[in-house]
Amino acid sequence: MKTLFPLLVCVLYPFITYSQEDGKGTIDAQRPTLTESFSIVLPNMLQFESGLDYFNDSSDVTFNTFLRGSVTKRIELRASTDYKTLNTVGAKFVVMTPEKTALGIGTSFIYNRDLVNNSNDFKLAMSKSFEKFFVTYNIGYTENFYNIFLIGTSIGNQFNYFIEYYNDNFLNRIHTGVTWIPHRDIQLDINGGWMDSDTWYTGLGVSFRLR
Question: pTM of the full predicted structure?
Answer without folding.
Answer: 0.85
